[in-house]
Please model this.
Amino acid sequence: MKKIIAWLMAAMMVFGAVACAAPAPSTTSNDNPAPAIETVDTTATEAPKAEEPAKADAAEEPAAAEAEAEPTEEPFVRPTEYVRGDDEERYEAALGEYAEAYAIAKAEQDVNKRFNLMAQAEALLLDSAVMIPTTTRGGSYQITRIAYRTVPYVQWGNDDDRLKGLIISDEFITKEERAELIEAWNKAVLGEAEYDPAAILTAKGHTLQKDYTTTFATAPVTIDWLNTSSQSDTEITVNTVDGLVEYNNLGQMQPALAESWDISEDGLTYTFHIRPGVYWYTSEGTQYAEVTAEDFVAGFHHMLDTKAGLEWLIDGVIVGGTDYYANGGSWDNVGYKATDKYTLTVTLEQPTSYFLTMLTYSCFLPICDSFYQANGGVYGVEEYAAASADTNKYTFGKSEDVASQVYCGPFLLQKLQKDSEIYLVKNANYYKADDVKIDSIKFVYDAGENPLAYYEDAVKGVYAAAGLRESTGTLAKAKEDGNFDKYGYITDTESTTYFGGLNLNRGTFALEAGTVASPKTEDQKIDTNIALNNKSFRQALQFAFDKGTYNAVTYGEDLKYTSLRNMYTHPEFVSLSEDVTDADGKTFPAGTFYGEMVQYYLEKLGSPIKVADQIDGWFNPEAAKAALDKAKSELEGKVTFPIYIDVVYYSANDANTAQANAYKKVIEDTLGAENVVINLVEATTSQDYYASGYRASNGEAGNFDMFYGSGWGPDYGDPSTYLDTFLGEGAGYMTKVIGLF
Model:
């Protein structure tokens, strides 16, 4: 389990007065592709009834009137061709109860009551079976030259992708040395000592390295950090720009470009004092302009204009923000103002206990206002849409043009070649130069097709670390050469949750080029659509998913449970600081973790799901078969079994191929191939694989029936950072993974 101490610290800080404050990646917003490619570890109103016709006078009725016939159900008429349904109707049928419960939770101002109400809503989300949490990051074997916890240590936001503090040795760190580093870190968290990993390693004969090389599989599509919600973009750019605040490697919030801040007594106004003398630089290091409060306003304005999936995070938080981007409201009414050159004032709609934790996420980063406008940038939702369409004039943040952005962070982006290399160098003029422990960061393109070659390169010193997996042969190789026994350890698990989504309203059955094409007939497409909109059938599929077997093909039998996750929000993400009694009189004592409350409400719903980490909490063959029997009764006369479920897999990646085959076997073995058949649909490139699911622009573009290639990492310290992603009417970023909006 990750961050026990930090969870408690963060919880206390969230619950306390917010005058000052103390992830998954997160995924980015932290939208993360599931690690199909090996990575290295470093969020009631009753409907009106139809009016009945007036009855005739009793005297006028025939004396021997026959009893009125009982109304009969209309016979099911099978569609003749597949047609998408209405997204809102599908959402209401599947997640209407969740949305209603979550709206009540969001409106609650008392933090502890809010957590309890959110737990009730999350139980309804899980019980709907539209998605199934699968794994989190970490929980795998690894060898590394990177010292323990030298990057920001936090469960949410983008800070844990900031690499400036990396301490890298020229040798792999032994198990004994790692244990010493962990002990030193724990003492530092408790305030008993300083944490100096460089001193610990050099005292043992290690020589520190100044250059860090790792890999990437999904290239950035933009270097405009406010025009994206994908971690594959922001994990690069976050190293080139600083925000108002930043977490350190002990989990403590520190001033960054805001030297200090003040909070009004009513909790509605935050005043940030911007650090003077910090500058923007070109990719070559030429000074461009000073960072001012207006640059933060420009960044926030631009973020709302782009509508790239970040804007909804400020709904109900920043005064006037939602009205501006969603309803055409006036920018003058938005509570984000530069009151002078170095003063930023933010006005909230209501006291928000977690607001400061939100500031470490990319939607609150600045851009250089003057550079943006010089490169065709304009402000206004409609104005931006028109300007950005003219690629000759609008040149800001183009993905492979490092000169189309300027940088104020510890590194300057000097090369970005999508299928080759991304290269960042230390900013010699960075205002906190002593914090930067490395001189360069190099990302080398690797689609994960030859993990043994990657391992050999790591041993040679090309890469700082290597994951060890049974499915790739790297674990066996490390055991053979002795590296596993000497250096191997199990990585911490994290707050990012990967999950599989069932497509309730599929709109795509092949990519535009004709690749990744479904083999289903028209009748089979219709049957699948009808079945997936039946809750009992969805539950049958999800309870039949043996995630331990699925995970074992990549992690190995001995670690098949270590990274499993069974609820969307990390079960120990927050806890109660005070006793809470719900509407039915159930009292949860102070200290109760969020996941414990979700478990209670699932049991009230009669669900067999167990939410703790590191167990297979959904796999239940008996419950799966019972749900299937119920579904077959409910679907009688409407579909023809078996139901065919398309699962896209990346065939060039052994681990992803093994996972797909494992999924097919466990589902068909549990439910019977006479009831459910899993079609394994091949994607021969990683681009096609991600385009079919993770990179699909909306629900209609999803080319799958079941896709487990997406994940979400928290953006701030409140469960809403996860739960907001399944809001309806297009507001929830992850509803596209269930084929909606």
